[in-house]
Amino acid sequence: MAIAEGSRRIQLQVQQASLADVLGSTGETNVQGEIVQRLDAASSDIFVETLSQSGHVAAIGCEEIEDPVIVKGEAADGYIVLMDPLDGSSNIDVAVSIGSIFGIWQKRPDETVNDASLLRLGNEQVAAAYVVYGSSTVLVIATKDNVCGFTLDPESGSFAVTHPNIRIPAECPYYSTNEGNNKVLDESTRKAITLLRDKYSQRYVGSLVADFHRNLLKGGIFAYPADVNRTDGRLRLMYEANPLGYVAEQAGGAASTGYQRILDIVPKQLHQRTPLILGNKDVVEETVSVISGS
Ligand code: AHM
Ligand code: MG
After folding, report:
1. What is the pLDDT of residues 202-211, one digit of tens each?
2. Whose CA is nearest to atom 18 of ligand 1?
3. What pTM was computed for the model?
4. 225 lines ligand 1 (CB under 6 A)
5. CB of 25 sitting under 6 A from ligand 1
6. 2-163 belongs to CATH 3.40.50.720
7. Residue 253, CB half-sphere, CA atoms under 13 Å: how many?
8. Ligand 1 contacts CB of residue 257 (under 6 A)
9. What contacts 71, CB < 8 A, 6 or more positions away?
10. Tell me: domain 174-292, CATH 3.40.190.80, correct?
């Protein structure tokens, strides 16, 4: 409910855009050294507020906030939420689909939450969710073996179930990658991407949530591998790769670095990056075997 309420509020700002003077940058850079867009900052504030006030969240980790937010008066059975409150920052100002991503862990019994409490295995998530602000606003929630999509009715402000029991289709019509990075890939990764290019149609929005959502519903593979400029990859482990990896697995798909299952990575830092190969299980496995040479 806290995620739904926050996304309803963000959706209003996304729709009003320049009319409400919410676009453009704040003039600041975040912990990743990236320019903070005004909607990044507003979304972070909104979700921190709705999650903190829910009474069920003990701590929040956020792309836009360097240190964890430890919620006071935490509930004993509280959750730990790690989030990218506004994914697809480069698409905010140009009316292209963007989103929000959440990984959800349960606090350990009797644990006094501190910064280290957020460094949990992706495999220990109890749920994950994302919202895509596209031609419609869709909230997808994954729990064990179940992935369900809800569409926002902009008139009533409520979400209704529209995509019960999502399973990633057996067919894989699409691959999604930044082809502009081809020249900086190592040889085996370039070979893997070339094989995808030879077989499938390319679709690349440049907002992870939007690319993932299309591939989840239609079938497809998303790849942001490591390259010579980004030896740790581009995307963030704790609030991009882990949550969407969890959603993919619960829907019958897979997520890998190219060498290791994403959900098995032992995290070292809240904001660490990872290569990400995500989508149809068999195509992810084929791609990983070419990248790793196994
Ligand atoms: P953000 O969380 O700051 O928006 O950055 C992550 C985004 C992803 O949504 C997307 O998949 C990727 O960056 C695109 O990167 P590139 O522009 O290098 O293709
Ligand atoms: Mg992001």
Report:
1. 999 999 999 9
2. 178
3. 0.96
4. no
5. no
6. no
7. 34
8. no
9. 51, 52, 57, 58, 59, 60, 78
10. yes
